[in-house]
Amino acid sequence: MSDKIKYTRKGDVAVLRIQNPPVNALSHAVREGLVAGMAQAEADVGVKAVLIVGEGRAFIAGADITEFGKTPLEPYLPDVCKRVEASPLIVVASMHGVSLGGGLEIALSAHYRVAQPSARVGLPEVHLGLIPGAGATQRLPRLVGVDASLDLITTGRQVKADEALKLGIIDKVAEGDPEEVGLAYAESLIADAAPRRAVSEMPAPEPIDWDASYDGTLKKGRGQISPAQAVRAVQAASELPFDEGMLAERKMFMDLMETDQRQGMIHAFFSERAVGNLPELKGVEPRALQSIGIIGGGTMGAGIATAALLAGFNVILIEMTPDAAEAARGRIAGNLSGALKRGKITQMKFDAMTTTALEVSINYDSLALVDLVIEAVFEDMGVKKEVFGKLDAVCKPGAILASNTSYLDIDEIAASTSRPADVIGLHFFSPAHIMKLLEVVVADKTAPEVVATGFALGKALNKISVRAGVCDGFIGNRILATYRTAADHMVLDGASPYQIDKALVDFGFAMGPFAVGDLAGLDIGWATRKRKAATRHPAERVPTYPDKICEAGNFGQKTGKGFYIYEKGTRGSVPNPEVPELIAAERTELGITPRDFTDAEITRRYMAAMVNEAARLLGEGIAKRPLDIDMVLLFGYGFPRYWGGPMKWADLQGLPAVLADIESYAKEDAWFWEPAPLLKQLVVEGRSFDDLNKDAAK
Ligand code: 3H9
To answer: What region holds the 3-hydroxyacyl-CoA dehydrogenase NAD binding domain (predicted)?
Structure first.
């Protein structure tokens, strides 16, 4: 038998113990071992029941995702499930930790299920661009009905043991050692002469309006196909005999396995785990963190303070006046009351976070003992340097001094202190207590343990932290500036902002660039354009109509008008009629005859600009790995997860095709569309961005 399954006999129960750390994924060896274990139990004279239990922290986390994309090896998981269920012995699953995907499918093939109170079960395959492929779409509806099945399968939501019991997914909740609990349950079933109970033999579930459910799920998935496909699989459970339903599920599963979406989502899964794993930090210990200082209590500072309080840190926030300090306290309490309302914290925690754990002050001396300070004041180098000067004077040796700037030069800020090795950028995204992304900006002299501490802080705050080097805009905002410019050029040449927004939402973005501009505040882009005006390259095409929108006092959502009009009930979907007039006037002034753009061309140009700038960042070393860029766009900029990120998208298109697009656009505007040297090099070498990820992991 495979060494992944340990067979033991306990009285009249055979125990199959899965030993495949860290999470007992159903690798080829585990599947083989389970089949062999069932055969051994059935041949073992006197055995009346089989107990399946997992070792370590989980029952089973599902199929082995690392095997996806390779040729599947027998025994296939659906057959393993069938083998388990077909046993003449009573089969019991004792579940602890997580039972996900194929793990739950093994449990559903057992005849009885018991779980620890802390156990969680779920079918997260849709998050990998798949549907369950080992019978869950056929067995679960027979066990718990169509509605509950569709809820779990199309959302990938995990449920705790108590809810699983209520739904009927499991038969019993019991606390203790999983093997002991399972044995006691198996013995009681034997004593009661409980029947062998195969879910596949239960009656087919009642039908629903399948087309309506399919359409609704497709719409909710914003272009993601697997959740809607899951509806069709559950439909098969209702309409077909079990074995035919299994074949239908298998076909849909295998078809989805071939999709770009499956590749994109699995890339996202592994990149999310790899992003915080920096080769340069191997063996580097972070500094201890207990208390955090924050300078500035505006939206950003208050959001960072909220995140830090929620993670259990003590926070000292500095404002300029007592009134501003109290206003900051109010903002933080407001954020925390949101968490209280959503049941994320208790009233007791809320009280502690707004009193003992939080101090607001107007005196920098209060920061003498903090371990790390994050400055979140006005974006002006002079102001920042003044703040860092004060911090340098009052903070204890070894305290980390961080700036939340979104584009300023951290090297320059660091050089203005006597301790540049302790200075780092920690770029949060607003609202900082909600948004998952944190750019950890490493300056020339930042010490490795300071970088490690930035990542440790990000982990404590439950963020996706990405390493970035110093440049204007770091990774995210620099790429944003470029693809936004590509959109601006398309507007000048004939596309409307509304067509562009729609094309990109159809592509899968949470919002289009013009709606994002309205959300962030059009004054931000206006200020950036003014700041960059003096150093602008003469060949750069910069539209002026957005300045005119701002000059009229329209900054987007906060003023009720920008590219869109924001009135109660309209949710920003009403275009501002003044905008096309301003655009038309500018085209006339520039002598441009507007042309039509298809949605496909809009998307290609937008993505090409994104990929080209990203390749430049990689070439310059601002981003170390393509996956870092993918995670920035996914977690900070609403990039559709099912494409995996812009670099994965480019790999899926094929880099020669992306480069060919860029070279054809360069015929109109050689300055903006100059191909990134790294992109050209990869095409020549026949390599992909993912090859660079693999190089970095070596
Ligand atoms: C499926 O089951 C299809 C079937 O329906 C049909 C098949 C025919 N495989 O996340 P962590 C690794 S699809 C391989 O850091 P946590 C993970 O990469 C599957 N590896 O820990 C990491 O490796 P490393 C449906 C896996 O405690 C390590 O384990 N199942 C798998 O925060 C620790 O993971 C899912 O989608 C796997 N299935 O979270 C579940 N799972 O240390 C996906 C994990 O080298 N997994 N690894 O970086 C999860 O949601 C979380 O990993 C889990 C643990 C909750 C299990």
So the answer is: 292-468
**Does ligand 1 lie within 6 Å of residue 66's CB atom?**
yes
Q: Ligand 1 within 6 A of 128 CB?
A: yes
User: Rounded to the nearest whole angstrom, what is the distance from the C-alpha of residue 35 to the centroid of ligand 1?
Assistant: 22
The ipTM is 0.99
Residue at 601 is within a domain = no
Q: Which of 125, 319, 375, 439 is catalytic?
A: 125
pLDDT, tens only, 474-531: 999 999 999 999 999 999 999 999 999 999 999 999 899 999 999 888 998 898 888 8
CATH number where 503 lies = 1.10.1040.50
- The answer to whether residues 435 and 581 belong to one domain is no
CB-based contacts of 449, cutoff 8 Å, min separation 6: 284, 285, 286, 287
Q: HEC string of 241-302?
A: CHHHHHHHHHHHHHHHHCCHHHHHHHHHHHHHHHCCCCHHHCCCCCCCCCEEEEECCCHHHH
Q: Is the CB of 22 within 6 Å of ligand 1?
A: yes
Of 541, 572, 594, the position where a domain reaches its end is: 594
Counting from 1 in the atom list of ligand 1, the atom nearest the Cα of 76 is 8
- By three-state DSSP, how is residue 696 classified? helix
Instruction: Verify whether residue 105 is a known catalytic residue.
Output: yes
Residues 193, 226 within the same domain: yes
- Number of structural domains the chain divides into: 3
Residue 687 lies inside a defined structural domain of this protein: no
Shared-domain flag, residues 455 and 514: no
The catalytic position among 32, 105, 187, 439 is 105
Considering the domain architecture, whether residues 447 and 512 belong to the same structural domain is answered as no
Residue pLDDT, tens place only, 518-563: 988 899 889 888 888 888 898 999 999 999 999 999 999 989 999 9
Range of the domain at 36: 5-261
In terms of C-beta density within 10 A (0-12 exposed, 13-18 middle, 19 or more buried), how is residue 61 classed?
Answer: buried
Q: Give the predicted TM-score (pTM) of the model.
A: 0.94
| Residue 305 domain flag | yes
Establish whether residue 60 lines the binding site of ligand 1, counting it when its CB lies within 6 angstroms of any ligand atom: no
Domain annotation covers residue 697: no
Strands (E) in 153-250, as ranges, are: 158-160, 172-173
Quote the ligand 1 centre to 375 CA distance (angstroms): 37
- Same domain for 309 and 252: no
The answer to whether 125 is a known catalytic residue is yes
Query: Ligand 1: which atom is nearest the Cα of residue 103?
Result: 2
23 in ligand 1 pocket by Cβ < 6 Å? yes
Same domain flag for 455 and 531: no
- Let me know whether 77 and 178 are in one domain: yes
Cα(426) to ligand 1 centroid in Å equals 29
Task: Verify whether ligand 1 is closer than 6 Å to residue 274 (CB atom).
Answer: no
431 and 541 belong to one structural domain: no
